[in-house]
């Protein structure tokens, strides 16, 4: 009868040992799992801290760039205001210059239309006409042409030049005759001083005729 209780006790001891081993194994596994979880948490925290640091650095960089852009924008605004004011002043000056140039061109055009110099020295008269008719500021080439035309007139005013002219006699017959242009003041042919006029539709088309009465002291 003692064998059965003994066997039962031994069986219970083995069962308890198995449970203990199982418990220890599970504890060990749980410990490993906890270590892995803690390691994962540590890695996640490190990753978050790194991301946070990077984001803070980006924020500081963006703040710095924003301040720089704001300062640059303010400087550009000031520069733009200065340039606009300078443009306004320059535009006014150019407008005055255009008025002076155009008035000079008009006066020169009037002289060219009636001057005997236009007979053979009107190379730049078309540029003068362009400036007079223009509604915008003249180009540099046009300003150069105006200056050359003025210079041409000044030079021609001191010349004595032999040329051929379209002469209309008292009977209205036209012919080509030689004559001398005396600067900008006179034209003389074999008959004496000649009067000249331009065609109304073409200021470069000259015709000359005799004076009804010659000026005094004609050689």
Secondary structure: elements and pairs:
Elements: H1 3-114, H2 125-133, H3 140-156, E1 160-168, E2 174-182, E3 186-189, E4 192-199, E5 202-210
Antiparallel strand pairs: 1-2, 2-3, 3-4, 4-5
Helix pairs in contact: 1-2, 2-3
Question: What can you see in these coordinates?
Answer:
Helix 1 packs across helix 2 and helix 2 crosses helix 3. The longest helix is centred in the first third of the chain and has 112 residues. A five-stranded antiparallel beta sheet has the order 1-2-3-4-5. The chain contains three helices and five strands, in the order H-H-H-E-E-E-E-E. It has 219 residues and is an alpha+beta fold.
Per DSSP E runs of 2 or more residues, the count of β-strands stands at 5
How many helices? The count is 3
Structural classification: alpha+beta
Q: Per DSSP, what share of the residues sits in E-state strands of 2 or more residues?
A: 15-25%
**Mean pLDDT figure:** 78
Helix content percent band? 55-70%
Strand order of the largest sheet: 1-2-3-4-5
Form type = rod-shaped
**Order of helical and strand elements:** HHHEEEEE
């Amino acid at each position: 009868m003692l064998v059965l209780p003994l066997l039962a006790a031994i069986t219970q001891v083995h069962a308890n040992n198995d449970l203990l081993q199982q418990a220890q194994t599970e504890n060990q596994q749980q410990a490993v799992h906890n270590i892995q979880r803690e390691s994962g948490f540590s890695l996640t925290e490190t990753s978050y801290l790194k991301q946070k640091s990077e984001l803070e650095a980006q924020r500081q960089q963006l703040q710095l760039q924003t301040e720089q852009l704001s300062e640059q924008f303010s400087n550009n605004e000031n520069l733009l205001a200065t340039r606009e004011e300078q443009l306004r002043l320059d535009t006014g000056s150019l407008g005055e210059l255009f008025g002076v140039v155009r008035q000079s061109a008009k006066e020169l055009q009037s002289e060219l239309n009636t001057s005997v110099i236009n007979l053979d020295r009107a190379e730049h008269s078309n540029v003068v006409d362009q400036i007079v008719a223009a509604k915008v500021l003249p180009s540099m080439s046009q300003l150069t042409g105006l200056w050359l035309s003025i210079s041409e007139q000044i030079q021609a005013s001191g010349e004595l030049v032999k040329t051929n002219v379209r002469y209309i006699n008292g009977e209205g017959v036209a012919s080509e005759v030689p004559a001398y242009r005396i600067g900008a003041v006179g034209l003389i042919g074999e008959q004496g001083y000649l009067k000249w006029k331009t065609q109304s539709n073409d200021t470069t088309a000259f015709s000359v005729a005799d004076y009804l009465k010659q000026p005094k002291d004609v050689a």
